[in-house]
Design a protein that fits this description.
There is one protein chain. The chain is α+β, with helices and mostly antiparallel strands. Among the domains are: about 5-70 and about 480-515, no CATH class; about 110-155 and about 320-440, no CATH class. It has eleven helices and 15 strands. Strands 5-6-7-8 form a four-stranded antiparallel β-sheet, covered by helices on one side. The chain has a three-stranded antiparallel β-sheet with strand order 9-10-11, with helices on one face. A hairpin with a 3-residue loop joins strand 10 and strand 11 (about 290). Helix 1 packs antiparallel against helix 11 (about 480-515), helix 2 runs parallel beside helix 6 and helix 4 (about 135-195) packs antiparallel against helix 7. Belongs to the flagella basal body rod proteins family. Keywords: Bacterial flagellum, Cell projection, Cilium, Flagellum, Secreted. GO terms for molecular function: structural molecule activity.
Length: about 525
């Protein structure tokens, strides 16, 4: 036979269950605009039924609340974070290459192609009046040569500064990663403690998921949870989290392993010139070993921009080396012609065999490094033009100090302009560079950069669309719908009222039994 108060217990459980469901609905509504919040739901099940005495069947005893469940799809989380990593990479790379395009600034009135044309135009003008005592034309050649070298110096300096800025960004990104992993490890400890009795720390898990989303954009991390026996817990096992980067742990439950930085010097920007070494940051995992390989995300994009020196990985070093090649080749070709000629007022002497002996203005270089007069030689006597790069190219002090030393003549005669003419014709020399004439070299360089930048922008836009789609899909699952919550609120309110009404009905029934039964005829 059932207990007299069994109906009260069933109604009471319904009352408490509806009240908890209303509390959760209110929590969902309050956090409708909270970033990263996942809506929650009360999981209910019927209480254990009791067997009827003297009859068949089972009698229900009410409702039990099992858990407060977080509505979230872990597979979509995994997908979104993978795509977020690629978005971080292409976004940072696109931004870096756009900055490089602004530095090279081609085509423009102040770009290297324009100042190079101005130099050739000045040389052509001098070739038309090689013996003119008016130094105005020669001064123009010097000024245009200086403008050409200063432009190369400035371009290289800006690229060098970009390398330093990128290195600073790497340090900032590493700091951000370390801050996130520390925060995640603290949350892991709290979640593990709170869930040791079988509860769900839903709000803390939301906070952790927001951090994981941010971390996934900075680097390619692998997130996994594993179970571990909880001593003294009837639930048996708790979940711990592992986060790895390139096979090395960043977070192992409540322990965070920091990415550390160490300053070193790199010669990849110009291996032939020790003075061109730039201080850069080397990354190590937990101070134990160098962190190499594909790190993914913004961090890898910044490292590629800073260190990419090959045609397969075009970063700042690749374009700096190309600019150095241009400066070296241009200086070599001009100097080899200029050093064979004579300037204004040069005396031409002959040896006993009638061959001219170069003297005074003859043998001077047009371009050297750091405004010097000469360039070092190799052991075999060849000029070491690798000393010259875009960073240090300048006109020689000899030419800078005496305009008459600008060579125009091959034989020393005042009316001869063959050297100046040959230098002027270099603008159309298609054998000067592998890409063709000097202008072709710069066009190829700018073209390659444009292709790289366009690819980065296209991939960034594609990833933004993909991440946006996945985020919308995730939000449709975990996000709070005000219409749905209002509907639930009304539903749970009616359920609460019905349970309360049930208790009132049971009270009235018992009142009849206790106070009225057997009183008829008194």
């Amino acid at each position: 036979m059932r207990s007299t108060f069994l109906g009260f217990n069933a109604a009471r459980s319904g009352l408490f269950s509806s009240q908890r469901a209303l509390d959760i609905t209110g929590h969902n509504i309050a956090n409708a605009n909270t970033e990263g919040y996942s809506r929650q739901r009360l999981e209910q099940s019927s209480s254990i039924s009791m067997k009827l005495q003297g009859g068949q069947g089972m009698l229900g005893t009410g409702v039990d609340t099992k858990e407060i469940q977080q509505i979230r799809n872990e597979f979509i989380d995994h997908q979104l974070r993978q795509e977020n990593t690629d978005l971080g990479y292409w976004g940072a790379r696109a931004e870096g290459l756009e900055m490089l395009e602004m530095i090279l600034n081609e085509p423009s009135d102040t770009g290297i192609t324009e100042v190079m044309d101005d130099f050739f135009y000045a040389v052509d003008t001098l070739a038309k009046n090689p013996g003119d005592s008016d130094i105005t034309v020669r001064a123009q050649v010097r000024e245009e040569a200086i403008a050409f070298t200063k432009t190369l110096n400035h371009l290289y300096s800006q690229m060098e500064q970009n390398v330093r800025n990128t290195d600073d960004e790497i340090n900032n990104t590493v700091t951000e990663i370390n801050d996130l992993t520390k925060g995640i490890s603290r949350l892991n400890k709290q979640i593990y403690t709170l869930e040791s009795d079988g509860s769900n720390a839903n709000d803390l898990r939301d906070d952790r998921n927001v951090m994981l989303d941010e971390l996934s954009k900075l680097a390619d991390v692998r997130v996994s949870e594993y179970t571990e026996k909880i001593v003294g817990s009837e639930e048996g096992a708790g979940k711990k989290m592992m986060i790895e980067i390139n096979g090395r742990p960043l977070v192992d439950h409540d322990t965070a392993y920091a990415i550390e930085t160490e300053e070193t010097y790199s010669d990849i920007y110009d291996g032939d010139n020790p003075e061109a070494e730039i201080p850069i940051t080397q990354l190590t995992w937990a101070g134990r070993e160098e962190l190499t390989g594909d790190l993914g995300g913004e961090l890898q994009a910044l490292v590629d921009l800073r260190d990419g020196d090959s045609a397969g990985e075009k970063g700042y070093p690749y374009y700096m080396k190309e600019l150095n090649t241009f400066a070296q080749t241009f200086a070599k070709e001009v100097n080899e012609l200029h050093s064979r000629g004579y300037g204004l007022g040069s005396d031409v002497l002959e040896d006993e065999n009638g061959n001219p002996v170069q003297e005074d203005g003859a043998g001077y270089l047009m371009f050297t490094r750091d405004n010097e007069n000469s360039i070092d030689l190799y052991e075999d006597g060849e000029v070491n033009y690798k000393e010259i790069n875009a960073r240090n190219i300048s006109i020689s002090a000899d030419v800078d100090e005496d305009l008459n030393r600008i060579a125009t003549s091959l034989d020393g005669s005042q009316g001869d302009a063959s050297i100046a003419e040959q230098i002027g014709q270099m603008r159309n020399d298609r054998t000067m560079f592998q890409e063709g004439k000097p202008e072709d070299f710069m066009k190829a360089l700018i073209g390659n950069l444009g292709v790289d930048a366009k690819e980065a922008n296209r991939n960034r836009d594609n990833q933004e669309g993909l991440v946006g789609m996945l985020d919308y899909k995730r939000e449709s699952i975990m996000g709070v719908s005000m219409d749905e919550e209002m509907s639930n609120m009304i539903k749970f309110q009616h359920a609460y009222n019905a349970s309360a009404r049930m208790m009132t009905t049971m009270d009235e029934m018992l009142d009849v039994v206790i106070n009225r039964l057997g009183t008829v005829g008194r």
